[in-house]
Structures are given as C-alpha cells and as structure tokens.
Amino acid sequence: MAARRAYTTHPLVLRRVTVRRVHEVTPRMRRVVLGGDELAGFTRDGTGHPAFAAPGFDDHIKLIFAADGDVRAALPAQLPYGIEWTPSEHRLTRDYTPRRVDLDAGELHLDFVVHGEGPAEAWSASAREGDELWFVGPKSSLRLPEGLDWILLIGDETALPAIGRFLDERPLDATAHVLVTVSDDAARQELALRDGDTVTWVVAEPGDAAALEAAVRALPVPAGEGYAWAAAESRALLPVRRYLQRELKFPKDRLNITGYWHREEAATPEAEATAEAGAHAPAVGPIPSPLPWLVTRAALRLGLVDAVADTPGLSADALAARLGVPGPGIGVLLPLLASYGVVVGDGDGGGLRLGPAGEELLADHEREEYTGHEAELLLALTHLAPALRGGTSSPWTLASGATLHGTVKGDAERYGELVEECEQLVFLLDGLTADPLWEGVGTCLLTGPGSASVVAALDDAGRRPRLRVAEDAVPASVLRGHVTAPDRIDWTAGPADVAVAAKALAYRTDEEATLLLTRLAEWTGTAVLVEASRPDGLSPHAAEAALHAYAATGSPLRDSAAIAALARRSGWAVARTVALGWGTEATVLHRA
C-alpha cells in the first residue's frame, strides 16, 4: 500500500471580509481580526459556496491587493468550483497563515510582521474597522503522520503565526520543540507550551542563514518518531534542509520546509510574502545569455554540486578525481561557477565550498529547472527553427528522434516527472467530481499522468467507482506508486462507464491524441479530457506556455476549439466544457 496522502484539499473560493479590530501582539507583530458573512457558507451570482475551512496549522490563504488601488479590477473570476486567475496588470498577492479561525464568532485572525514595507504590511498598518480585504484559499491542509513522538517547529518571525496556532490547537499529541529567530527580544511571544515542550529564542537579523543553521544544529534530537517543520527566508533554510536531510536523514514524509519570504524581493521580510503576480513587464535590455544555465546544468549532471556540498574544502584536482573528469575540464567550469555564485573559493589552497546559488541547487525543485523534464524541453528548442519551417515535427521529435509520448512510455523516470508535475491538478478537480456525469457510474477508466490526482479527487468527493487504468506497462507501474490505494485498482484496460484522460494529450502529438481518443471509444461511450487550455494568469511564465506545448507536441496550447476538432476526428462529440480554474478545463465527450 502507498503512504497516505500528505494533504487534504479544499474548494477554492474568493471571499470578502472586513476589519473588526486591530491590535499589537508585540512591537514586531500586528494582529488584524477579520469577519464577514462570507466566512460562512454563502451564495454569489446564484452559486453556493461552502464555509471557510482552514484546519491545518500552516494553511495559507492568498490576500489580493492592487498596485493602483483598484482591488476589484484585480480579483480573479470565481467559477462554480474553482478560481480563474484572469490577467491583471496591477494585481499583487501575498500568502498568509491564519493565526486563529473562529467560525462560531465568524472571525479570522491574521498576524503581520511589522517592518514598514510591502503591500500587505502597508494595508495592515492603515487598516481600520470596516476596511475590506479579499482572499482565496486555502487550497489544501497538511496531514501530519500518525504515531509521532515529537515535532520540531523551526522558523523566524514570519513562522510565528503557524507555530502559535500549532501549540494552541495541538493537531497531534506529541512533544513540541520550538526554535524561533527574532530580530530583537521584543518580538518574543507567549506560547502555549505543555510539559516536555521546549522553546529556544535566538536574536538574529532577518534571513541570517548562519545563525539559523547554528541554532538548529544545537538542538538535541530526541529519541522516537519525529517530524521537522520549518519556515523562514528561503535561502536561510537551505543549510537547514541539507542538515536535516543529509545528516539527520529525515525521510521526505517526515520533513516539511517552506520558504515564507525571499530576501531578494525586499530588504526585510513581509510575513510569508510570495512573488508578485499579475502582469509582468517585458524585460528591458540585452537578451540574457544561456551560458549560466548550461554551465549550471553541466555541474549538476556531473555531480559537482553534491560533491562540494558533501566535502567542503576540496581542491580542484581532488574534485576532478572524485568526479572522474579527466584533463583540464573542471578548470573550465570553476571560474564560471564561481562568477555565478554556485561555488566559492579558488580550488587551490583554500578549497571549494558552495556559494548561495549552489546552496539553492541542493533542493530538488531547484534542480528540476536544469536537469528535469522542463530542462529537456528547453534544450529541444534548439530545433525550434527547423520545426517551424518544416511544420510536421515537434522540436522534441527533431531533437530526440522520437515523439515525447514515444519517449516517456518506456522511461519510468521521465514519466514519473510528468506525474509529479500533475500533482497540483488535484486542487482543481472539484468541478469535475461534482459534475452530474458521475451519477450511476460504476466503472471508470483512467489514462494520463494526472490519473493519480483524479483518484485522489474522487476519494475526496466520496465517489467510489471501480477503477481501471489504460496505460502502457511502464506508466502504469509509475502511477501505482502515486495512488493511495493501488490494490483497489484494476491495472488492465477494459470497458467502463466513463473514461478520464488527465493530461494525456499534453505530451502527445495530434496524431497520437487522435489514436488515444479512438482507442477510448472502443471502451466507453463517455470520456472526459482534462487539459490546460490557456496559460495560468497567475504564473510569471504564462507567456511561455504555448511555446512549451509546441516544443512537446508540435501544437501550441490546445484551446477548446482545438480539442473539439481532435474529438470529432476520433468519432466523439463535445457535450460540454467545465472550467476548472488556473487555465484548466474538463471537456466532456459523448460518442457521436
């Protein structure tokens, strides 16, 4: 059996609240108490929405502001079962953790670190009774493992709302060991500690990585089953992550580390700030060179970053010997890696160690930009001109000699990356699982890397059709490791009441997509295609979405009309299209 899912999903609802009162928790923390009818279940534009739910101690809601002050124009579109982040020139968003939720009183408490900068801090500084605030979320809540004996709660001032809420509500009966870095002693708060709990306060500048790492290393590691949770400035957490993962050997399901803010965005933190969203001005100046990306990719593929992380102080010769790189090759890379901040040191007398950029590359999600599936797609774009000129093959096919589908169906690692990319899909499927098509459905046939998310969404919705999977041997084996109950799934294709193809077309050419749809028509009279039909308006890379799709399949991002055309070629008719949010749609098909 696979491990139980780490998150519970929630419907995404846009809500309006107003300020009820404001007070100072400490000289460094301001609490704004919000309330309103939309914290309960409510109806807007004829559609009912559930009551606000944020059961997790570190849940995040997304506050919405506008650089020009016109917040109404910056709001996303509310769908019946989700949110669509439409383009907005002046939208700003910030993520915050609810400090307290009291639905009986109809109140939501938010704590803001006081430092004088950022749209959320500016709003909280001027907040008065009756002022409105719009927010979305949370989209999910963390499920802590069962049977824990202790938990580490590590953070800076921006983590205090989550830490305080954990200690107040105690989502599990385990001893808590708390470590918080604060800018001065005035930021300390009274915390609800129990017998056996410990708290350590460390005075350090915001984002001081060395101070945070030293304090974490000084913590004793208790016996028994433990869990580590940490939230602070993203770069400051990198050595903490390395220590907990590589030295203390915390397994991934016992570790949750989140960058709540980023030093490069502001001189001092705003509580749990995220990157600005909305429209992004075009770059001004010379076109950037691809050289830093290529050099960093080479360093990761050689194992250079890991080698320097594991053994700081290596000489260039010792590093070359460890990596098995003959001749002067390492000497070609090191000066460039040093100039990009991946390594520091001269490689001679002083030895080498990781620089700030190198520390970031220890995180799996940072590496993917250079070594994962997206990196391979980027390299395929070196064949963009001949692909456009020829008009018959995708850049991927010209680069590799096979279509992307042909590549991944026999490559478990690559297909696994596609499955992981689809994990966010589970947050968007409420509209699909609520659709009337499920009434009377006894069997469901699944295909595509998003199938694991569909299984999870059906479970969350309380729908229990008998499941079958129509995949090649390798993709099926990968999906088996990503679903919560693989033993209740029939891993062979066959007739079904409905088929769901979740992101199955996103890595297929038009010809391959037509073949898949024709194959599904042999097994069912109703099919659902879950695909991204337009860019996510909240993504800073929205303008690149069509190019990525073209690199993979030879077709730009397929909109509703393009999907309908593929369906007609395969003997299907479009019954309806369900907007799921974030540019994703579910197209319901019936056999023509």
Could you explain how this protein is built, in words?
There is one protein chain. The chain is α/β, with parallel strands linked by helices and 592 residues long. The protein is built from 22 helices and 27 strands. The protein has a seven-stranded antiparallel β-sheet. A seven-stranded mixed β-sheet has the order 23-22-21-24-25-27-26, with helices on both faces. A five-stranded parallel β-sheet has the order 16-15-14-17-18, sandwiched between helices. β7 (77-79) and β8 (82-84) form a beta hairpin. α8 (316-323) packs across α9, α11 (364-371) runs parallel beside α12 (373-380) and α16 crosses α19. The longest helix has 12 residues, at 291-302. The radius of gyration is 25 Å and the shape is globular. The two termini are 40 Å apart. Mean pLDDT is 89; it is low at 265-283.
Helix and strand layout, with pairings?
Blueprint: E1 7-9, E2 14-26, E3 29-35, E4 42-44, E5 47-49, E6 61-66, H1 71-74, E7 77-79, E8 82-84, E9 91-96, E10 98-102, E11 107-113, H2 119-126, E12 132-136, E13 140-142, E14 150-155, H3 160-169, E15 175-182, E16 198-203, H4 209-218, E17 226-233, H5 238-247, E18 255-261, H6 291-302, H7 304-310, H8 316-323, H9 329-339, E19 343-344, E20 353-354, H10 356-360, H11 364-371, H12 373-380, H13 384-390, H14 395-400, H15 404-408, H16 412-421, H17 430-433, E21 443-447, H18 451-460, E22 466-469, H19 473-480, E23 489-490, E24 498-502, H20 510-521, E25 526-532, H21 545-553, H22 560-569, E26 572-581, E27 584-591
Parallel strand pairs: 14-15, 14-17, 15-16, 17-18, 21-22, 21-24, 22-23, 24-25
Antiparallel strand pairs: 1-13, 2-3, 2-12, 3-11, 4-5, 6-9, 6-12, 7-8, 10-11, 19-20, 25-27, 26-27
Helix pairs in contact: 4-5, 8-9, 11-12, 16-19
